[in-house]
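Title: Request for sanity check on Flagellar hook protein FlgE prediction

Description:
We are preparing a figure and want to confirm that the structure record we downloaded matches what your pipeline produces today. Could someone re-run it with the sequence below and paste the raw structure tokens into this thread? We only need the token string, no images.
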Amino acid sequence: MLRSMYSGISGLRNFQTKLDVIGNNISNVNTYGFKKGRVIFKDLYSQTVAGASAPTENRGGVNPKQVGLGSQIAAIDTIHGGGSTQYTGNTLDLAIEGDGYFRVQNGEGEDDVLFTRAGNFYLDKGEGDDAEEARIVDGEGRFLLDIDGEQIIVPINATSLSIGQNGAVNFVVDGELNDDPQIISLVKFNNPGGLEKVGGNYFQVSANSGNPSEDMTPLEEGLGAIKSGSLEMSNVDLAEEFTEMIVAQRGFQANTRIITTSDEILQELVNLKR
């Protein structure tokens, strides 16, 4: 069989994967804190027809003769660039201006800590029927953590809740401002691109992301500031995605043409017997 046919098949598979990633990006164009994906191709391997030869006194060198045998996926990256900030006016809507991720936790297990850039947080009613304190949680009920790894507590009767750029959670109770506010922690990673998506706008540590930094206050060590009353939108650029979709579609069509042409050539060879 012709090698070009198998090269065309590998191209079809790769462009299908690229279209899958583009489709996921477009479907999440309005997802808070979403980070888009990108597909990188590389050649598969090459068959050497003739090797290279070194130059001599009587003859110059000759380059190798190689036939490529298709392409493959080199990487599917997650682009962690910041998205645009949308004003909401809701105090518990938090956007990170700069680097960093919120830490959220379900329960008390250290292994159940996840990371997110989606800052749509809420107050729950507190634990028990007679609760006097509420906790700040995300849309899945996971607790937002402070720099000590503790849940962030707000009294039920608190008024004038505010969150500063440094992550300090301030409120007024009985006309008095809390004098020792909890600080929302942000963390960063040596390789954010190595974080693994687990759905729900969450990331988890992978073998190549590195461990999260120690609990740090916003604005420290290159971390961003927290902007209350705003949310970070998806970093998907629709114009770019539609352009990439056209490129992927044309690439898919070109590879189908390779297969069709190879089939026609094989048909001609079969017809030689007649």
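Thanks, this matches our download. The chain has a mean pLDDT of 91.
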